[in-house]
Amino acid sequence: MTLPHTTPASEAEAVAVQLRLRERVVADSSGPAPGAPGTVVVGVDVAYDDDRDLVAAAAVALDAASLEVVAEATAAGPVAFPYVPGLLAFRELPAVLAALDRLTVAPDLVVCDGYGLAHPRRFGLASHLGVLTDLPTIGVAKNPPPLAVREPPRPLAPGRGATAPLLDAGDEVGRALRTRDGVRPVYVSPGHRTTLDDACAHTLPLTVGVRLPQTTRLADRLCRDTLASGG
DNA sequence: GCGACAG
DNA sequence: ATCTTGTCGC
């Protein structure tokens, strides 16, 4: 990876790391164009067993067009950081980075299960992973971020593809995106080397017939199985 | 002080 | 995240 990851000794130090690293986020579209043929999309996810002090991560690479699995990798280790809202990256990154290292194909885009820009300090898990690896990343979360300035929840049209802005101090930092008709939306935001428009455009083809991106679903299943198999 | 709070 | 059966709908 381009930058090393180190586990902070305190929450205050973790916040300081975020404020420093967020300066390095690249907010352009130097990542793959949505729909570009041959794009390798990698989903990452993590499962925990706090009692055994064990965390397992999985990285699953798909062909963006066919959604066929191209490669998989897992990694397990001790839990490095407690769960603290806003600091999820420090809990998940060590295992995720290890799994990505074991992947035999080069990711064109990494899809994270969590926030990117749509984060209280505008530096969620997806942004953090992108800065450390310099890979294009996006964040797709199941729940809305607790933004400081939340706008009156604008109603979201019922059909797949409908969106509503996630505003933070007047800036659109993410989007609620309906990926299935009549089903609650997911919350998409750019991480590194992607734009919000592209993040949403990348998400739609990954969610044909399902709410969450296939990348996330497959990675979730794999890391869960890995944890169950011992670690 | 209390509630809210990605995974 | 994780603890967990059935149930409604397509």
TrEMBL record:
Record-linked InterPro entries: Endonuclease-V (IPR007581)
Protein's UniProt keywords contain rRNA-binding: no
Site feature location: Interaction with target DNA: 83
One example GO MF annotation: deoxyribonuclease V activity
Catalytic class of the enzyme: hydrolase
GO BP term, example: DNA repair
Entry keyword set: Cytoplasm, DNA damage, DNA repair, Endonuclease, Hydrolase, Magnesium, Metal-binding, Nuclease
GO cellular component, one term: cytoplasm
Primary localization class, coarse: cytoplasm
Cofactor(s) this protein requires: Mg(2+)
General function of this protein: DNA repair enzyme involved in the repair of deaminated bases. Selectively cleaves double-stranded DNA at the second phosphodiester bond 3' to a deoxyinosine leaving behind the intact lesion on the nicked DNA.
Entry's family note: Belongs to the endonuclease V family.
Protein name: Endonuclease V
Natural source organism: Streptomyces triticirhizae
Gene: nfi
